[in-house]
Amino acid sequence: MAIAAAVVIVPLGVLFFLSGLIVNFIQAVCFVLIRPLSKNTYRRINRAVAELLWLELVWLVDWWAGVKIQVYTDSETFKLMGQEHALVICNHRSDIDWLVGWVLAQRSGCLGSTLAVMKKSSKLLPVIGWSMWFSEYLFLERSWAKDETTLKSGLQRLRDYPLPFWLALFVEGTQFTQAKLLAAQEYATSAGMAVPRNVLIPRTKGFVTAVSHMRTFVPAIYDVTVAIPKTSPAPTMIRLFKGQPSVMHVHLKRHLMKDLPETDDAVAQWCKDAFAAKDKLLDKHAAEGSFGEQLQDTGRPVKSLLVVVCWAILLVLGALKFFQWSSLLSSWKGLTFSAAALAIVTILMQILIQFSQSERSTPAKVIPAKPKNRGEISGTQDKRQ
């Protein structure tokens, strides 16, 4: 990693790591003491506490890097965002798509209750993974035989969630790359399907399960399409830490859950049709440079900036008091300990960056013909016989 990036990552990493440990501690205390007495009270408190951590990453997008996120949707949908439960499906275009979702959730007032289907390994990440676990994210192992029960039970737990939530599901299962697109195109050709140009072929089993378990208490599906204008560099975590801006266009279409078909096969086909429409929409975006619909003003709220400033003041004052009490910087032993602690934080932040980019490096696999739709929920391209 470049030295300049490391210089930025160290102080930001220290701030995020220490504030995150405080958030994790509060979440753990609430989980042990409050959740057994009232699950709804725990969820309301955790929603506010988790938001204090997620807002630091929103600040990174909004105020540090100045990434501009332009949202295209109709006025009615824009007003309903954050006012209802929603299942969110999105193409996976960049390694900060999840952060884009958090920014939109923050604008809609439901950042603390935004959930996602994640790889099981992600819950082991210090701070961010632990906070996701306390926040009831769904963690899967990329094996349907193991994940089916986990997914169904996780979805059922959301039935009595007391506040509007978004559950994000990347049905492509992996981040878009040209190599993966080529594999998807070869598969589509061999299977007699429409050949995609801008998206991967969705894996529908997880989506079908989500719809079948959520249609009675989740009123809407948010069909999100993310595009990067040709005039903007692709956003990455490294660019964010360096404070380098980008532009991202987001198209959002709201579908009523009650309008989806009843049978599993028909729901799976609906998902495939939605991605075929998404593919055409991305063609239009490439030709015109925008999605051509009503552009909504999402602004840049100061809430994330205030939270980061407050965290910084609190931790700086706490650190000064600690150093005065411990005389940690007055000896070689103390200096060595401090340097080691900074190195650990830097390594942890690099692990976070590598995790966010891991899907990009996942090799694509050529898919044999005659599929039977045995796709997994996340991971590399399906193996279908």
Please summarize what this structure is.
With 385 residues, this protein is an alpha/beta fold. Helix content is 54%, strand content 11%. The chain has an 8-stranded mixed beta sheet, with helices on both faces.
Q: Radius of gyration over alpha carbons?
A: 22 Å
Summarize model confidence as the mean pLDDT: 84
Fraction of residues in H or I helices: 40-55%
Major sheet characteristics? 8 strands, mixed
CATH class: Alpha Beta
Distance between the termini: 41 Å
List the strand order in the largest sheet. Answer: 4-3-5-2-6-7-1-8
The CATH topology, please? Glycerol-3-phosphate (1)-acyltransferase
User: Stretches where pLDDT falls below 50 for ≥5 residues?
Assistant: 359-385
Proportion of beta-strand residues: 5-15%
Q: How do the SSEs run, as a string of H and E?
A: HHEHEHEHEHEHHEHEHEHH
* Separate helix tally: 12
Number of strands: 8
> Into how many domains do the coordinates divide?
1
Shape type: globular
Family: Belongs to the 1-acyl-sn-glycerol-3-phosphate acyltransferase family.
Region (Disordered): 364-385
Catalytic activity: a 1-acyl-sn-glycero-3-phosphate + an acyl-CoA = a 1,2-diacyl-sn-glycero-3-phosphate + CoA
Enzyme class: transferase
